Amino acid sequence: MITAEHLRAVAGWARDLPEADIEYARRGIVEKTFGKGAYICHRGDRFDYWTGVVSGLVRLGSVSKSGKEVTFAGLPPGGWFGEGSLIKGEARRYDLLTLRETRLAMMNRATFLGLFENSVAFNRYLVRQFNERLGQFIALVEHDRMHSTAGKLARNLAWLLNPVLNPTVGLRIEITQEELGLLSGLSRQMANQGLKALEQAGLVRLEHGGLTVLDLDRLRGYGDGSDMDD
Fold this sequence. Notes:
There is one protein chain. By secondary structure, this protein is α+β, with helices and mostly antiparallel strands. It is 42% helix and 23% strand. The chain folds into two domains: 126 residues, Sandwich (Jelly Rolls); 76 residues, Winged helix-like DNA-binding domain superfamily/Winged helix DNA-binding domain (Arc Repressor Mutant, subunit A), CATH 1.10.10.10. The strands form three sheets. Strands 1-8-3-6 form a four-stranded antiparallel β-sheet. The chain has a four-stranded antiparallel β-sheet with strand order 2-7-4-5. A three-stranded antiparallel β-sheet has the order 9-11-10. A hairpin with a 2-residue loop joins strand 10 and strand 11. Helix 5 runs antiparallel to helix 6. The mean pLDDT is 89.
């Protein structure tokens, strides 16, 4: 069980809930820490928790039959995921892997379904979450067809800073070039080249231990014809 104050700090969705729903939600949440490179769950596993990233970084992806790794999303602090699997009561269709030491807030399925069935504010949040996630996965198809290194990096970085899916991140994110490359399907060297191109375009400022996005709207559209990249 976590405190109401801590819940509001790690879950943007909780800030719109009435006190009774906050109290109900916090009683169904525990936290757990996973080391770097740990599998939280594998594709086909039952993982009956709605889960938020308190600290660290999680890769949501899969491996094809041919052995190709595909990343569906990166999940930074503030991101919550798994609502679809819980509502449908099914096994996960993806792997969840930590890219660094990660602490998760885990809400049990009974509590999640209780909020889903009784809380208007919680359901409003879920509708926004589903809509934004749908846009993310539609964009994933487009990303797969893009040959631009900087374009792939720009889109993946923009999703990491998406204010609906990850409301507590802001415009500065602590992330390494290696981590960003893993989320974008690129080598560290290619990620470095792409980041330099984005910096030269005035979209990001590279900093020690991370970066700051200077123009999120332009970053989202980078490579769609409004900017030129290699």
